[in-house]
Design goal:
The chain is of the alpha+beta class and 391 residues long. The chain contains 12 helices and 20 strands.
Length: 391
């Protein structure tokens, strides 16, 4: 029996096998064999999700061998890439073609296929999540057939592929919309929360990437603003908060401390009052929480299961040490997030059942109906997805 665990060690699995793929034909052969043995298949990226998305007693596919940029089109500002490529490996390769990701998350250790499967995002009030940049995909389906989709060919499949929860097949290649390579300069500072709160909206509007962490024990905000610059990059790279270099060098950070995390997206207009409610909760009921609360912004998109579907968004994340039981804290936060019309990040902890998810995602039925057409036998489902699947 094989073993698999996620980044934090909180999600563990004993699949029948973890199978490494290096090509689409490998992937197709594995899926055909699993299917004929009546086994289910889950695809793993870099295992950085806190939610039980990869966990299965079936077969886990390790996609790290599907790596690299396949082709770039500097004029159209697009590129095809293998879905197992780690985001940190994309930066330099795209840069060499004069291109860059429009935005990226707080770390760059994820596989691009894994990041897209859960709607991973960075911060920036005018910037959408990574899923919204997907314009094409190649997928090995449950039948073992390989299909390529874009806005003209199999557009419904593309919609589901853009945020797919690993539930439609093995995504082998992705085509992303990009932009010209660009430089960024970041600035970090600390301020009392009460001082930064009144400026939040203007800071988020005036800055390409604005975010802050609120520390419950000190009531201080550690803020960061990142903007485009024409200044020459400075190497060796300075510490986080002082870098001036290309986007792929400035946006990602090191996050070595193992933790678990819940994140909800709330309508941008309610971001500050939702954060205030979380602050009150922590101070009143969870005064021992030391991990910070993160506040970021995200532009509206049209990705069916995106947490920013058709609404400008503020994302608020709460963290807890993996040695602690996060459940009472996270459940209390979740109640507040839901009062603010929140939608949970697919790669992070939530406790929602299918009925609630159906209410908070306007395209829930559409997404599932399309998924069922692609994989009616549920080859690419696991216990978690079967639990939230519409009856
Ligand atoms: C330290 C840390 C920092 C983080 N920072 C951010 C952040 O800034 N912003 C943010 O939004 N999120 C963040 N996350 C969450 C993370 O980006 C997501 O959970 C992301 O999905 C993880 O990518 P992964 O490659 O590790 O995928 P995994 O966790 O391995 O898998 C995630 C999903 O993708 C599917 N999948 C992976 N590859 C494929 C493929 N080729 N074909 C089909 N399905 C596939 C899996 O089946 C699963 O459903 C962070 C997580 C950690 C631990």
């Amino acid at each position: 029996m094989a073993r698999w665990s996620n980044w934090s060690g909180r999600q563990r699995s004993k699949p029948v096998a973890v199978q490494f793929v290096r090509s689409e034909s490998d992937a197709a052969a594995i899926v055909r064999t699993a299917n004929s043995a009546g086994r289910t298949v889950r695809v793993a990226g870099a295992g950085h999700s806190h939610s039980p998305l990869v966990v299965t007693d079936g077969v886990i596919i390790d996609t790290s061998g599907l790596a690299g940029v396949i082709s770039t089109d500097a004029q159209q500002r697009r590129a095809w890439m293998w879905a197992g490529t780690r985001i940190h490996a994309l930066g330099r390769a795209l840069h060499d073609a004069g291109l860059g990701l429009v935005n990226q998350g707080d770390i760059d250790r994820q596989a691009i296929g894994g990041a897209i499967a859960t709607g991973t995002h960075g911060t920036g009030a005018s910037l959408r999540n990574l899923s919204a940049a997907v314009v094409g995909a190649r997928i090995v389906l449950a039948s073992g057939d390989v299909i390529e989709c874009d806005r003209n060919r199999y557009p419904e499949l593309l919609e589901v592929a853009r945020l797919n929860l690993g539930s439609i097949g093995i995504v082998t290649r992705l085509q992303l919309e990009l932009r010209d390579a660009y430089r960024l300069r970041e600035q970090a500072w600390q301020a009392a929360f009460e001082d930064i709160a009144p400026q939040l909206e203007s800071l988020a509007r005036a800055t390409r990437h604005f975010e802050f962490f609120w520390y419950p024990q000190t009531d201080m905000a550690h803020a960061k603003a990142i903007d485009e610059t024409n200044a020459e990059p400075v190497y060796p790279l300075a510490a986080e908060g002082e870098r001036c270099a290309y986007s792929y060098e400035v946006l990602p950070n090191d996050r070595p401390h193992l933790h678990t995390e819940m994140e909800y997206s709330v309508p941008a207009a309610h971001g500050l009052s939702c954060l205030d409610a979380i602050r009150t909760l922590i101070r009143r009921d969870f005064p021992d929480v030391r991990w910070p609360v993160e506040y970021r912004t995200l532009a509206a998109d049209d990705v069916w299961l995106s947490t920013a579907y058709q609404r400008d968004t503020v994302t608020i994340s709460v963290h807890q040490d993996i040695a602690e039981d996060e459940t009472p804290y996270f459940r209390a936060c979740e109640e507040i997030f839901l009062n603010y019309d929140g939608r949970p990040h697919w790669g992070k902890v939530n406790y929602l059942e299918r009925e609630t998810l159906a209410k908070i995602h306007p395209r829930w039925q559409d997404w599932w109906q399309a998924r069922e057409r692609i994989d009616p036998r549920g080859t690419f489902l696991n216990d978690y997805l079967r639990r939230i699947r519409p009856r």
